[in-house]
Amino acid sequence: MQPGTRRRLTAIIGAAAAALSAGAVTLVASQGANAAPGCEVDLNVVSSWGSGFQANVSITSAEAVGDWTVEWDFTSAVSGISAWNVTGQTLSGAHFTAADAGWNASIAAGQTREVFGFTASGTPGDIANAEVNGIACGDGDGEQTTEPEPTEPTPTDPEPTDPAPEGTPVQEHGKLSVCGTKMCDASGDPVQLKGVSSMWLHWQTQPYAQNLQALEWMRDNWNIDVFRVAMGVEPEGAYLDDPARWKSEVETVIDNAATAGVYVIVDFHAHAAHQHQSEAVAFFSDLADRYGHLPNIIWETYNEPEQVSWSSQVKPYHQATVAAIRQHDPDNLIVLGTPTWSQDVDVAAADPVAGTNLMYTLHFYSCTHSQWNRDKANTAISRGLALFVTEWGASHADGGLDGRLCLDEAQRWVDWMEANGISWAAWKLDVGTDSTNLLSAGAPLTGGWNNHLRGHGPFVVENLR
């Protein structure tokens, strides 16, 4: 997001709060329920962009807290609030309420813990009538204190990272960035990554995506630069049903990619992710905290939004997930899904998400999508968007259930991506009868697939090489 003036909103409540620093919203709660005396709530406005702002909320407690509910009244006009890492959030008029999400419920005695964040439309002002766990936080007038703070976070030492193996894509290109409408490498030179995507992890016939030998074989024999791990979210048996399992499987792919020196796209593979924003924010916040120091990570926050509003549904979701990632990973690429199954990049270009190193998802299937869709993409590029085709196939948009291939149109797409320097990952590394399944029956888990290519597989591999 565009950096704005960072401010802290300070409510000074009662005499007990007067001695506290002016940079906090201070709530002094009576003892009872789970509220502890001497607690503080700090609203740190980390950015603002004219029509809205983003803030993080921290709680300090003098005594241990087992769970919490915070509420207050905004004194300025605020609407459209979207918080993450909370449950039960409501904004009724000026009155805001939010409770812990379980994993962030406990606050040790004397601990300051950042517990959630939010974006909102409007302008940040003061807060009043604050309560913690239903206990009024004292009488007295709130007043706002604005103090300048640096727009950049305090630098910290990065976690140690083993260098990528000699001759691998990551060793050659290093950390990636967006330069204009292109992707550039660590030297500032334009780069086009090419690779393949996994199947939805929970629907794979074998764990091809999680096998290190297979990844290294594709790097050495197909010349892939990037591998996309498509973590299914909504279907039965996917992430929402078993988050610990599937996040662990994604971690395996990330670790393998770091070992192999290959870029990895971490894909929240959903069609209604905006309905699961809190889960997405928690997922990306955790992984970005632990893996954001790696130079080969690319985050893809929303695979294919369906026919939903960009400005009122998809964009606010992206703002929340981008903010969660940027708290821990300030500069790796983030790819943002676009409406109508990631076709409407021109719509996103008319109202882009503020921030740096952001790219936008474009998907095509050549029997369904042709020049009309490239025209939409050309419009987006002309308006300054950087695109990434994180999924494509030489088939119908259903992945090729009828087995048909449209290779001439697929070649037009490949030539167009080459001409525009647009990186891509072809769908999908698995065995099956769909024309986008790259492998035939009997393909071993560990690679060695030159005699097991099928469907659009030979075409994909030819264009990888």
UniProtKB/TrEMBL annotation:
Q: Where is the CBM2 domain?
A: 32-140
Q: What is its EC number?
A: 3.2.1.4
Look up the signal peptide feature and give its range. 1-35
Q: Where is this region: Disordered?
A: 132-173
Instruction: Note the superkingdom of the native organism.
Output: Bacteria
Per UniProt, the ranges with Acidic residues bias are: 140-150
Q: Which Gene3D superfamilies match?
A: 2.60.40.290, Glycosidases
Which SUPFAM superfamilies is this protein grouped with?
A: (Trans)glycosidases (SSF51445), Carbohydrate-binding domain (SSF49384)
Q: Which reactions is this enzyme annotated as catalysing? A: Endohydrolysis of (1->4)-beta-D-glucosidic linkages in cellulose, lichenin and cereal beta-D-glucans
Alphabetically sorted, this entry's keywords are:
Carbohydrate metabolism, Cellulose degradation, Glycosidase, Hydrolase, Polysaccharide degradation, Signal
Q: Where is the composition biased (Pro residues)?
A: 151-163
UniProt family annotation: Belongs to the glycosyl hydrolase 5 (cellulase A) family.
| Protein name, UniProt field | Endoglucanase
Q: Which species is listed as the source? A: Glycomyces niveus
Taxonomy, top ranks, is: Bacteria, Bacillati, Actinomycetota, Actinomycetes, Glycomycetales
